[in-house]
Hints:
Elements: E1 3-12, E2 19-29, E3 34-38, H1 45-52, E4 60-65, E5 68-69, H2 75-84, E6 86-89, H3 101-111, H4 118-127, H5 143-155, E7 161-165, H6 173-190, E8 194-198, H7 201-204, E9 209-214, E10 217-223, H8 233-257, H9 262-265
Parallel strand pairs: 3-8, 3-9, 6-7, 7-8
Antiparallel strand pairs: 1-2, 1-4, 4-5, 9-10
Helix pairs in contact: 3-5, 5-6
The structure holds adenosine-5'-triphosphate and magnesium ion.
Amino acid sequence: MVLRVENLVKEYGKDMSLTKALDNVSFSIEEGEFVSIIGASGSGKSTLLHLIGGVDSPTSGSIIVRDKNIYNLKDKELSKYRRKDVGLVYQFYNLIPILNVEENIELPVLLDKGKVDENFKKELIDILKLGEYLNYLPNQLSGGTQQRVAIARALINHPALVLADEPTGNLDSANSKEIIDLLKLLNEKYKQTVIMVTHDLDIASQAKRIITVSDGKIVSDIKKEVPLTSTNEQAVQAVITPIQQSTEIVEKVKSDTCEVNHEDSK
Length: 266
Ligand SMILES: Nc1ncnc2c1ncn2[C@@H]1O[C@H](COP(=O)(O)OP(=O)(O)OP(=O)(O)O)[C@@H](O)[C@H]1O
Ligand SMILES: [Mg+2]
């Protein structure tokens, strides 16, 4: 098991303005899984990812990554956890504008005073088709290419977890498909555990497991046991049914929450 989340609660504000962003969330993820987390805007997806990433602290509950309870770690160990055990991919790439592509990819290793694994770096550059851009600065690249750099940067340290928050949220459908295909490829090739937040059902359904959150709670956790390529009718139905169930859940979540103006509550 790579991750165990236990009775996680995160509250913002207090008294009248109290928001329960996460309400007693528990689940676990095995090494090498590719998991989508889906839910309406404001349901708590990013909060959950931030807590797993060690960048915020929970109101109560625990997060255990490879047997380490991360919020019991000392400050120094927690920053090391953030640098070494987590690879983050954001909607807006968050590359360092004054570093070129190669330097951006190497950054997590250099920040940790480590030595770059040149063979692995070269493999990532090949798989992510970045060879011709190594000397480019981020603002000279398309969004899709910037996101491919961000993915290389996220994987370079062989993190326990890659956490991606709406990684295709700023991309057109062709680039979105490419990014998801690459994440799936890297997940399979390196057994890299990936947790991806999205509110796009088509994107989410690319994962083998879909966790749906609503109002800070897990409302469904569906594993697809059968690969999407199967032509066997029964097998295909086994894939489609959970997706349909998920769609219904997402529609319900949307209709339940559409009257809340999230801009006001942020
Ligand atoms: N720093 C904060 N201070 C106060 N409330 C917050 C803060 N961050 C999040 N919230 C609230 O917590 C709830 C969950 O927010 P979160 O950002 O996790 O949702 P989300 O599912 O990622 O939404 P989206 O799809 O819009 O990104 C929302 O009600 C939000 O307004
Ligand atoms: Mg979010």
